[in-house]
Amino acid sequence: MSTDRPLDWSPLEVELAQWHRTGLTLPLWWRDDDAIEPTAQMNQLSALSQNLALPVHLAVIPAHVKPELADYLTDNPTLLPLVHGWAHKNHAGRDQKKCEFPTQRPAQASIGDIEQGLRDLRALFGAKLLPIFVPPWNRIAPELLPSLPSLGFTALSTFTPRQSPLAAPGLAQINTHLDPIDWKRSRSLVAPERLIAQVCDQLRARREGKADNHEPYGILTHHLVHDAAIWQFTEALIKRLMQGPGRVCQLDNKENST
Ligand SMILES: [Zn+2]
């Protein structure tokens, strides 16, 4: 987003006006991935979260987390830890999309890692940890999902609108829907007009009953790689949603009851 070219938010404003007319509300949540330790970027994330009055659900990598993150989260209470895989290690085959828990990996090894991650983060964060599993690269072999509730997880979070409120019996599905980063090319902001069009399409589908508006609408960020354009767009978008139909959605330990 260049600063000398004002961004046209009017398509979103038109859609939000429709929401206002119909009295609909949008449950809104924010997930940020790949947290390991306190950094300058995490300070920026925490400040923005407080500023916007929207908590950030922080997907923490268990194998790499630094113990000082625990005290940091006590001092920064709008950051709420979730479990982000185990070591963010790719176990997929050479020609496959990256995945830490792919189908071809022995289930026992995957489950062992997932269980260890939950145990370690519980030991570090105590009751503050939300037992919500965020698989790295938003992928996990579907046959592993029925085991997650017995390990202690209440919800699974990946990317794109959910097909069903439950990922497995006893396991809620609460996905993210908008990722502002152009991972394949610039690693900066996706063309902002395209992002605005995507939000409009997703909101329209919810308003028209073609998508599940009970699923919290998730903004997905990665604080460690944000440039100024990504920070600015994220802030501007969340601000608009919060001034309109957005309602703060803070996930808790009982997501399987929703
Ligand atoms: Zn990740």
Which secondary-structure class do the elements indicate? alpha/beta
CATH-assigned homologous superfamily of the domain at 30-187 and 220-232: Glycoside hydrolase/deacetylase
CATH architecture of the domain at 30-187 and 220-232: Alpha-Beta Barrel
* Topology order in helix (H) and strand (E) letters: HEHEHEHEHEEEHEHE
**Which overall shape is indicated by the principal axes computed on the Cα atoms?**
globular
Average pLDDT: 95
Number of strands: 9
Share in β-strands: 5-15%
**Main β-sheet description:** 5 strands, parallel
Provide the CATH top-level class of the domain at 30-187 and 220-232: Alpha Beta
From the 3D structure, determine the CATH topology of the domain at 30-187 and 220-232.
TIM Barrel
Bound molecules: zinc ion
Estimate percent helicity: 25-40%
Distance between the termini: 38 Å
Count of individual helical segments: 7
